[in-house]
Amino acid sequence: MTNLEKFLSLRSFVNSVESKGLVYGASFSEFVILRAIDADGDPGIRRVDLAKAVELSVSGVTRALQPLEKQGYVMQQESAMDARERRVVLTAAGKELFNDIAANVDQRLEQMDSEFQALIAGLN
User: Fold this and answer.
1) Which of 20, 51, 74, 87 is the most buried (most CB within 10 A)?
2) Has residue 114 got a pLDDT over 60?
3) Which pTM was predicted?
4) Total domain count for the chain?
5) CATH of the domain at 84
């Protein structure tokens, strides 16, 4: 198998994982963002801190949050300590979605790991 074929196989696997989502139609990337927001606690999280937590640029986080905001899973609110600062918080629907996904994430990650191991075995 050529390097190009290996790369295309790996890219196909990554696309497959993203398109399937974890559960409830949320992508793995969305789950990572929801997890970072949830982990930060009640005052929410600044976009710059969220970007660091999920290893994206601030503009990448902004783009990633747009569908989550549109679906009502996250919202922005002013900081209680500084009115100039806006924080991203989970809505009630976002907390419910995150909790539902988190309850099943281990099972889905194990399945993804099995699929990945099969791909690696096929590349050798």
Assistant:
1) 74
2) yes
3) 0.70
4) 1
5) 1.10.10.10
